Amino acid sequence: MRPALSDRAFAAAGVERVVALEVNDVHSLLDLVGHRLGLALVPAHIADKPQAAELSAVPLSGEDGPVWRSAVVVPGQGGTSPAAQRLLSLVPGLATGRG
Questions:
Q1: Is the CB of residue 72 less than 8 Å from the CB of residue 94?
Q2: pLDDT tens across 47-94, in order?
Q3: How many Cβ atoms from other residues are within 10 Å of residue 29's Cβ?
Q4: Rounded distance between C-alpha atoms, residue 24 and residue 32, angstroms
């Protein structure tokens, strides 16, 4: 199994990552950080949520910074609705089909 993005980022920085608590939803995560119970490595759109307004975000940059890969999941065999097809047409750089 490949280490998680955050594990790789910490290892690359030479920092030991210690996980004492994990949560499954972003709002609980932001609450824990707000109560000074840790920090979180999150995509920028999570740091921009209104629930994070009282928190400080430190942007990561550089060629060696972490990169999240995202995917759009759709039903197989052309099962997308016209509305879904229209939404997909708005996604920049979306590859069609599997190659």
A1: yes
A2: 999 999 999 988 777 666 667 677 777 777 767 788 888 888 887 777
A3: 20
A4: 12
Burial class (CB in 10 A: 0-12, 13-18, 19+), 50: exposed
Q: Which residues of 71-84 are buried (b: 16+ CB within 10 A; e: fewer)?
A: eeeeeeeeeeeeee
CA–CA dist 39, 32 (Å, integer): 8
> CB of 41 within 8 A of CB of 6?
yes
The pLDDT tens digits of the residues spanning 50-60 come to 999 999 988 77
Integer Cα distance of 44 and 57 in angstroms = 8
